[in-house]
Amino acid sequence: MEARTLVVRDPSAADNVMGLRMWAHAAAARGYLDPLDADRFMAQFDDAVRAGRFTYAVTFFLTAGTLPLSG
């Protein structure tokens, strides 16, 4: 197993490629998040972008394995 962290500092890449800015509203539409909290998330996202302090990071865990031969 190997951990790899993706760090994105370009908000347009995070938003245009991954749709990050809209994740909160998608969660609210499905009942997982209060719509007001989704609005607050978007406001904080936009504030971070304007202030030049936007950073998004996610860690992926890469694994490999083999299946035993059946015989």
Fold and architecture overview:
There is one protein chain. The protein has helices at 11-18, 23-29, 35-51; strands spanning 2-8, 56-62. A two-stranded antiparallel ribbon has the order 1-2. The protein has three helices and two strands. Helix content is 45%, strand content 20%. By secondary structure, the protein is of the alpha+beta class. Helix 2 packs antiparallel against helix 3.
The largest sheet is: 2 strands, antiparallel
What is the tally of beta strands? 2
Distance N to C terminus: 28 Å
Shape call: elongated
Number of helices: 3
Helix content: 40-55%
Q: Round the Cα radius of gyration to an integer and report it.
A: 18 Å
The main sheet orders its strands as 1-2
List the helices and strands and how they pair.
Elements: E1 2-8, H1 11-18, H2 23-29, H3 35-51, E2 56-62
Antiparallel strand pairs: 1-2
Helix pairs in contact: 2-3
Primary descriptors:
single chain; 71 residues; alpha+beta; elongated
Short description:
With 71 residues, this protein is α+β, with helices and mostly antiparallel strands.
